[in-house]
Each structure stands twice: as structure tokens, then as C-alpha cells.
Amino acid sequence: MADTAAAAEQPKGPRPIIPFLVLDDPPYLAGIRCTHCGATYLRSGRVACAKCGEAGPFDDIRLSDHGTLYVYSIVHQSAPGIPVPYVAAIVDLPEQVAVRCTIVDVRPDPAALPYGMPVKMITRTVRTDKEGRDVVAFFFTPAS
């Protein structure tokens, strides 16, 4: 009973919306690299390398916070409560990893979204969970 009460009184820090977002200072995307062939992936529950087929081991790596816009779609309809339009994109990172994301702080207009545009990662609090913790997501924004 005392442990439960103590746990309830502990400060509740923010939590990442996805497991490969690490809320360090600064926040970063976590990856893994196959020690056999060097293929790199977002950190997940991967048990084997899709490139060479080896079952690991994998080294943990910190992925770059900069990348380039590979492809995007301007979304005009979404679930209730999600403001539209927004830019859903795939960003290539220097570590040869592609990450799906939302591009923010840019006009949702093809004229403002050249392929290959340099982008940088940012994080924002997107909501509060049932425990009162801030839920933090990552986005990419044009790098200037």
C-alpha cells in the first residue's frame, strides 16, 4: 500500500509517443545497426537483419536529427480532431534509414516542399495521457 502511494506521488515526466524516440537532452531517434553487414534500422523488436539475414547482434546507435525530404503527401482528410491539411512525409536520414513523419512549420503546398529539402527533427507535446504525463512526438521542419 505504501509503495503504491509513493509511486503515485512520484513526479510524472513526459513520455515519447513511439519507442524509438528518446527524450534525452536533446531528444533523438534511436536506431540499431547490424554488426555483420552494417544495415541500420529504427530501434524496435527486430530479431534479424532484413539485409543479410543474421540474427544479430545489433549495436544501438543515435540517429541524426537532420535528413532530407524523400517524398510527401498533403493530407486533406483525417480522423476527427486532427487538423488538416498537414504534410505526411518520409525523410531519409544520413544513416540510410527512412522515417515516416509529419513535416511542420511549412505551408502545405508543393511549391514549398521540394524533394531533397533539408529538414531537422523537433519534438512537441501533442497531448496528455491518462496519468497526466505529457506525450511527446517528433516532427521534421525545414532546416534553414
Architecture overview:
The chain starts with a helix and ends with a strand. With 144 residues, it is mostly beta strands. A hairpin with a 5-residue loop joins strand 9 and strand 10 (134-142). The chain is globular and about 45 Å long. It has a six-stranded mixed sheet, with no helix packed on it. It has one helix and ten strands. The relative contact order is 0.21.
- Low-confidence stretches at least 5 residues in length (pLDDT < 50)? none
Round the mean pLDDT to the nearest integer and report it. 92
Number of strands: 10
What is the first-to-last residue Cα distance?
Answer: 53 Å
H/E element order: HEEEEEEEEEE
Tell me about the biggest sheet? 6 strands, mixed
- As a whole number of angstroms, the C-alpha radius of gyration is 18 Å
In order across it, which strands form the biggest sheet?
1-10-9-6-7-8
Choose one word for the global shape. globular
What amount of the residues lies in strands? 35-45%
Portion in helices? under 10%
Discrete helix count = 1
Structural class: mainly beta
Please write out the topology:
Layout: H1 2-9, E1 15-16, E2 21-22, E3 28-34, E4 40-42, E5 58-62, E6 66-75, E7 86-93, E8 97-103, E9 118-128, E10 134-142
Parallel strand pairs: 1-10
Antiparallel strand pairs: 2-3, 3-4, 3-5, 6-7, 6-9, 7-8, 9-10
